[in-house]
Design a protein that fits this description.
Layout: H1 2-5, H2 23-26, E1 38-41, E2 45-48, E3 53-55, H3 84-87, H4 121-141, E4 144-149, H5 151-165, H6 193-200, E5 208-212, H7 218-222
Antiparallel strand pairs: 1-2, 2-3, 4-5
Helix pairs in contact: 4-6
Length: 229
């Protein structure tokens, strides 16, 4: 049992269980620890891949939760009618976890790659709130119709982020809720909370295309501005 309960991935590769109160339950005479996958459900119980059959009166199906489809199932439409789901077919990407190219005036909180394995998400959300306010101040202060993240800004940011994540313990774990189906880490921030605060404390106007209210563009006039979420 000790061998079965020992993780086969590095420490912190997945969320750490702080409590060990469940250990006594596993040693009870009426409890069996089964680590093999379920092969089929029968009329009398469950047959596992190991060939063992477990009779049961009640079957609780715990499938987990979806962590990589951000904002789902809300439909967000940006310029040219492109949806956020279409932009994220290969995994969710957002500049500082906050803005996405092609979705003007659209801001995300607790977005892609802002989750933590070492600190409080509340602090990250506070940083995001501060950054979004700076964006709104820029829009109002310069009487802009919208600001839209430049694609090259997102590409450069995302490439560096994934390079940093490749050297973390999360990349050494086969499957986890930090990753999408192809193994890309879409959930976690690659550095410290202090570094995230430093990156979000000020707005970099050059990362955004700024469109004045007086300027008419085909894209901007054809589609409504994306709302803030």
């Amino acid at each position: 049992m000790r061998e079965a309960l020992t993780p086969d991935y590095p420490v912190c590769g997945k969320r750490i269980l702080i409590s060990d109160d469940y250990y006594p339950a596993l040693t009870r005479e009426n409890v069996v620890l089964e680590t093999a996958g379920v092969e089929r459900i029968t009329a009398d119980g469950v047959t596992c891949a190991s060939g063992r059959e477990h009779a049961c009166d009640v079957l609780v199906l715990a499938t987990g939760f979806d962590t990589t489809h951000f904002i789902s199932p809300i439909a967000i439409e940006g310029l040219n009618g492109r949806t956020l789901e279409e932009s994220w077919t290969e995994g969710a990407q957002a500049y500082l976890g906050l803005t996405v190219a092609g979705f003007p005036n659209f801001f995300i909180m607790y977005g892609p790659n802002t989750n933590l394995g070492h600190n409080s998400i509340i602090f990250m959300i506070e940083c995001q709130t501060h950054y979004i306010l700076r964006c709104i101040e820029l829009i109002r202060g310069q009487n802009l119709k919208f600001i839209d993240l430049r694609p090259e800004a997102l590409e450069a940011y995302y490439a560096k982020l994934q390079d940093e994540l490749s050297g973390t313990v999360w990349s050494q774990t086969g499957k986890s809720w930090y990753k999408n189906e192809d193994g890309t880490i879409t959930n976690n921030w690659s550095g410290t909370t202090a570094r995230y605060w430093w990156r979000t404390r000020k707005l970099d106007p050059d990362a955004y295309e700024k469109v004045p209210r007086t300027q008419r563009t085909v894209d901007a006039e054809a589609r409504p501005q994306a709302a803030a979420v």
